Amino acid sequence: MTAGLPDPAGFPDCPVCAYVITGTARLCSDCAGRTLQAVADPHCPVCSQATAPGRPCGNRLCALPEEQRGFSRVDAVAMYSGALREKIHKLKYDGAYGWAMIFGRLLVGWMESHPEQMRGVDHVVGNPSHSGRQPIQHIEAIMDAAYAEDATRAFPLSPPGAHRLVKQAETPRSANRTLDGKHAAATAHAAALTWTGDRGDINASTILLVDDVFTSGSQLQHVARRLRATGAADVRGLVLARVPWTG
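The structure corresponding to this sequence follows.
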């Protein structure tokens, strides 16, 4: 930092950091990157899972043709571990809204530092939660925060209250289910989604679909395929955290 200014507190001490209000996406992203578990190198170019040199990815989705997989690739800010796992849980299940701002900054910081992955993206949308979700619509809160942090409007994020992808009905959650259960929940989730923009907005477009956590990829697959069936030409994924693959 500049002489005379305090150093950032470091993730996950963001709430007591001197820059919790004035910090930029790049500042917070660079700071968090010093403590978050980075995506391994080498990793699968499709799902970001760690791979052994010369060995294929163990995720069955990655071997599917893209039209069946739905998404072309999924990038992750970090791995789902330690403090990041805890704070995602705090937002998602305890309603700790303040973490939405931090996560919004981490997403925008990633976009700023990966221009090659953002090239050609027409829409950045969150994988939505139903309006009745309790205690908070965590994805919408993160996406609204990301829009606020993108001060120069460098990225095609939807403004608060005008999300292009919405969920019309509540569906079973996929957490703590078997793979078959996750598949059924993902199918129901995707079927409940609606693109609210003009049909011309999505036709032949490239969409960056944002979520908090990527585990098996089943839900992202179903949502991506629904977006492609609606008219999108390419669906890419960006998640805050990639769960280590154990399948």
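The chain has a mean pLDDT of 94.
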